[in-house]
Design goal:
The protein is α/β, with parallel strands linked by helices. The chain is built from 14 helices and seven strands. Helix 6 packs antiparallel against helix 7, helix 8 (135-156) runs antiparallel to helix 9 (161-181) and helix 10 crosses helix 14.
Length: 314
């Protein structure tokens, strides 16, 4: 129910308070206000944006719905009561189809910017998409397809090495920003995310880290090419509830999974080891024999995290 107290519409809360209470970063708040007018804050005498309790309630509901897969563009004009009717409902098939078309258009827009070496435009397209859609939609329908098409283009010679490097640098910035946006405060399951030794390609790990953060996990991201001993030490020190590794290149990982599960030297036996990436097509049996859980897609990874979280709180 909406807050109907007399002062519910009185603007008194600054951006930092709203960000803490809604989980939306100040950057996303400004983007939603500017692009979609989801709320209209007033200004203090000093120019500070101020929000009411009703504004905060509305923003909380919008974030939950966007994270569930609804597009902010389709929610922005709805009242609190209409948002309550949407809450809990799956996005309708027509909306999903339209959103898929929009996502494909954003992918094409990003690829066009990459082809022109327009890094600023490439970054702006991705940032706007991240703000406009929930994380599952952004990651699954925009980020991953864009990366895959750039990778295929690099392999067949239609994307240059310089273009691939440029887009990778932009993706690192965007995904690093999203990790900060979705940073979890308070009690939550903990996960360590990295790539193992001799694995320098980190974008898969960053995608996994953002996915985990958006699912409510506290993420310790350790970057690429991490020695096994350091990975184990970090997992023990933060009392990780899971460890996730992205492995792209099949060479040089023989014995990795056995080392990670070696009694007394590897990960604690009750800490799930989750692995994904292109190399796992070749090394799946080895990984599963060592007790690792292999995932092929981000939706599969999120589903596994949801199950682990449920068992942890049961």
């Amino acid at each position: 129910m909406p807050d109907e107290s007399p002062d519910a519409e009185v603007p008194r809360y600054p951006v930092r308070v709203v960000a803490a209470r809604t989980g939306l970063s100040p950057h996303v708040l400004r983007a939603w206000e500017r692009r979609y007018q989801v709320v209209v804050p007033t200004r203090s005498g000093g120019g500070q944006r101020l929000y009411s309790r009703l504004d905060i309630e509305r923003l909380r509901k919008l974030r939950r719905l966007v994270d569930a897969g609804h597009a902010i563009s389709r929610l922005a004009g709805l009242s609190l009561e209409q948002l309550d009717q949407v809450n809990g409902a799956e996005p309708q098939a027509a909306e999903e189809g339209g959103q898929a078309d929009e996502a494909e258009a954003r992918v094409e827009e990003a690829l066009g910017a990459a082809a022109r070496f327009d890094a600023a435009r490439f970054e702006a397209v991705l940032e706007r998409a991240a703000v406009s859609y929930g994380m599952p939609t952004f990651l699954d329908q925009i980020a991953v397809p864009t990366l895959e098409r750039i990778g295929h283009g690099w392999a067949d010679g239609t994307v240059s090495v310089a273009q691939e490097h440029m887009t990778s640098a932009v993706f690192r910035r965007i995904l690093g920003w999203l990790l900060r946006v979705y940073e979890v405060h308070g009690p939550a399951p903990r996960i360590v995310v990295a790539t193992p030794p001799r694995q320098a390609h980190e974008l898969g790990a960053l995608l996994a880290a953002v996915s985990a953060a958006a699912e409510g996990w506290k993420v310790t991201y350790l970057g690429p090419d991490l020695p096994v001993a350091e990975l184990v030490r970090a997992a023990e020190e933060i009392r990780a509830d899971a460890v996730a590794l992205s492995i792209v290149y099949p060479g040089g990982i023989d014995g990795l999974f056995a080392a990670l599960r070696r009694p007394g030297e590897g990960l604690p036996p009750d800490v799930p080891l989750i692995v994904g990436g292109a190399a796992m097509r070749r090394h799946r049996q080895e990984a599963e024999s060592a007790g690792a859980r292999v995932v092929e897609t981000l939706p599969e990874f999120r589903s596994l995290l949801a199950g682990l979280s449920e068992r942890r709180t049961a």
